[in-house]
Design a protein that fits this description.
The chain is of the alpha/beta class. It has 19 helices and 15 strands. The longest helix is centred in the first third of the chain and has 16 residues. The protein starts with 13 loop residues before the first helix and ends with a helix.
Length: 474
C-alpha cells in the first residue's frame, strides 16, 4: 500500500509544528484535543521546557463534548486563561476529532478576540499532516497578523547600510543542537548582513513585527516557506532557500545578494552540479532544505554524485531534477533500489527500509526519531558532512560490529581502558558501527587506524574521559 508506514516512524504532526513555531513568542497556544497531541508534543517533540516556559494548553476534549459540541466551554476556558496570563496573542489549533465534527474555529477565534481584546487566530491543522505544514501555517499567521509595512523612516537606501534579512523556519524540530541559532547568526553577520528577526528561536514578537524592514528572507527549512511567500507578495521581499553549510558560504551568500539585486527568489542548492568523479553516490533523506544544503556541501568537498529524497510535505519546491519527493516506505524502497549501491545520510530509524547495498550514515532528526538520539544530533551549521561520509567509508567495511567488540572486549578485561563495558553495550545497538563510534568520540576516545586496512590498532582514553569514568558519569 502506498503512503503507509509499517517499518519506520512518521514525522511529527502538524499540531506539534504549530506549538514549536510559536513556543518562544509570548503567545498562548490552545490545542482542542482530548490530550494525545499535547502529550506527544510535550513528551517527544519539545526540548526547550528545561530552560524556557511557554503557554501551551490542551482543552481536554471528552467524548460527550465531541458528540454534543463544546463551543461555549472552549471559549470560556480560553478567555479565563487569557485574563490570567495576558498573552501577546492566542492561537487555536485543530485536531482530528473536532476536524471531523466540523467545529467552526474561525467563529470561535472571533468571539475570543472580542471577549479578550487579544489578537486571536485559528491555525488550520488536523493532525493528518507533518510538522513542516503546521509550523508553516503558524508562521504564515504571524506574518498576516503582526508584520506591517515599515515606516518611511525605516526605509534607508541600500547604499547607506548593510543588507537586512529575516531567518525563517528555525525550530528545534529541525535544528535541535543548542548551538544552532548562534552558529547561524554568526555566519550571517560575518557575511555582512544585519538580522532583523529569527522565526522563531532566540527572538520575540516585537522582533517578528519588524520583519518587513528586511531586504531578503533566509528560508532555512521548509516550514518558513509559507511566510516567505506571503512577505514576497505583500512587501516584495524575495527569499533564498537553503542555509550556509560549512564550505558553501560563498555560494549561498552570493545567492542571497542576488535575490536582493534582482528581486527574484533563489534556490542555490536545488540544481547542484554534476559530479567530477565516479565516487560512490550519496543519498540524503529527510527535510528537503536541510538535505539539499548538505548535499551541496558533499558535492563541493568530495565530488560525489548526490541525490535528495524529500520526505516532508511540499518538498518538490526545493528539489532539483535528480531529486525526488517520496511518500511512503514503498516509494522510498523502490527509489533506493534503482540507485543501487549507495551511501545514505538519514536518521538511523530509516535503516529498516534500506535495501541491500545501502550503507547508512547516521544523522538523527528530532522530528523523526524524537529524543531517543537527542545527544547525537549535531549542529548542522557546523557539520562537515564529507568528513562523516569519509569516516564511514573508512570504517564501514573493515570495522564491522563483531570486530569492534572484539577489540574492545580484551581492553575491558585487561583494565587498560576504563568504561569499555559501556562501549561494548553500545556496539550492539541496532544503528550500526557509526553510532557506537560517535559515542566513542563523544566521551573522549582517540581511535587510531592503520592506513592500509582500517583495522583498529590502538585506543587510548584522554584525561577528561578518564575523569568521567572515575566519577561514574558514563
Amino acid at each position: 500500500m502506498r503512503q503507509v508506514f509499517r517499518k519506520i516512524p512518521v514525522y511529527t504532526g502538524d499540531v506539534s509544528g504549530v506549538c514549536s513555531a510559536l513556543f518562544e513568542l509570548g503567545g498562548m497556544v490552545v490545542m482542542h484535543d482530548p490530550s494525545g497531541c499535547n502529550s506527544t508534543y510535550n513528551t517527544h517533540d519539545e526540548i526547550r521546557w528545561y530552560d524556557h516556559d511557554s503557554l501551551i494548553f490542551i482543552s481536554g476534549l471528552n467524548e460527550m463534548e465531541a458528540i454534543m459540541g463544546s463551543d461555549e466551554d472552549l471559549i470560556r476556558d480560553i478567555t479565563e486563561s487569557a485574563r490570567i496570563y495576558s498573552p501577546g496573542f492566542i492561537a487555536i489549533a485543530n485536531s482530528p476529532i473536532p476536524y471531523i465534527t466540523g467545529m467552526d474555529f474561525d467563529a470561535i477565534s472571533r468571539l475570543v478576540e472580542e471577549e479578550t481584546g487579544i489578537p486571536t487566530f485559528y491555525i488550520t491543522t488536523n493532525g493528518m499532516h507533518d510538522y513542516t505544514r503546521g509550523a508553516g501555517l503558524a508562521f504564515r499567521q504571524l506574518a498576516e497578523n503582526f508584520v506591517t509595512e515599515p515606516a518611511l523612516t525605516d526605509k534607508t537606501a541600500l547604499t547607506d547600510r548593510s543588507l537586512r534579512c529575516n531567518i525563517l523556519g528555525m525550530t528545534p524540530l529541525d535544528f535541535a543542537a543548542a548551538t544552532s541559532v548562534e552558529s547561524l547568526r554568526s555566519k550571517v553577520e560575518a557575511a555582512g548582513f544585519e538580522i532583523v528577526s529569527c522565526w522563531a528561536m532566540g527572538d520575540d514578537l516585537e522582533g517578528i513585527r519588524k520583519s518587513a524592514m528586511a531586504d531578503v528572507n533566509l528560508v532555512v527549512s521548509s516550514s518558513g516557506l509559507a511566510a516567505a511567500r506571503y512577505m514576497f507578495r505583500k512587501f516584495g521581499i524575495p527569499f533564498t532557500a537553503g542555509f550556509p553549510a560549512e564550505g558553501t558560504e560563498e555560494v549561498y551568500f552570493e545567492a542571497v545578494t542576488r535575490a536582493v539585486q534582482t528581486g527574484e527568489n533563489q534556490f542555490p542548492f536545488r540544481d547542484r552540479r554534476e559530479p567530477v568523479n565516479d565516487t560512490l553516490p550519496v543519498c540524503f533523506i529527510g527535510e528537503p532544505v536541510i538535505m539539499t544544503s548538505l548535499a551541496a556541501q558533499a558535492e563541493e568537498r568530495i565530488g560525489a554524485p548526490t541525490y535528495v529524497f524529500g520526505a516532508t510535505e511540499e518538498a518538490d519546491v526545493f528539489l532539483g531534477p535528480k531529486d525526488a519527493a517520496l511518500c511512503g516506505e514503498e516509494e522510498l524502497e523502490e527509489a533506493l533500489g534503482k540507485l543501487g549501491r549507495t551511501k545514505v545520510v538519514a536518521d538511523p530509524y530509516y535503516k529498516d527500509v534500506l535495501p541491500a547495498g545501502c550503507e547508512l550514515i547516521s544523522l538523527p532528526h528530532l522530528a523523526f526519531s524524537g529524543r531517543i538520539l537527542l545527544n547525537e544530533i549535531p549542529d548542522l551549521f557546523r557539520l562537515i558532512i564529507h568528513r562523516l561520509v569519509k569516516l564511514h567509508k573508512r570504517l564501514g567495511h573493515a570495522l564491522a560490529l563483531p570486530s569492534l567488540a572484539a577489540v574492545l572486549r580484551p581492553l575491558k578485561n585487561s583494565g587498560q581502558v576504563p568504561g569499555t563495558q559501556h562501549l561494548l553495550r553500545s556496539c550492539t545497538r541496532p544503528f550500526g558501527c557509526l553510532c557506537s563510534l560517535t559515542r566513542l568520540r563523544a566521551i573522549g576516545y582517540l581511535l587510531t587506524f592503520t592506513s592500509s586496512d582500517g583495522i583498529l590498532t590502538s585506543a587510548s582514553f584522554n584525561k577528561a574521559a578518564e575523569r568521567k569514568c572515575e566519577s561514574g558519569r558514563i
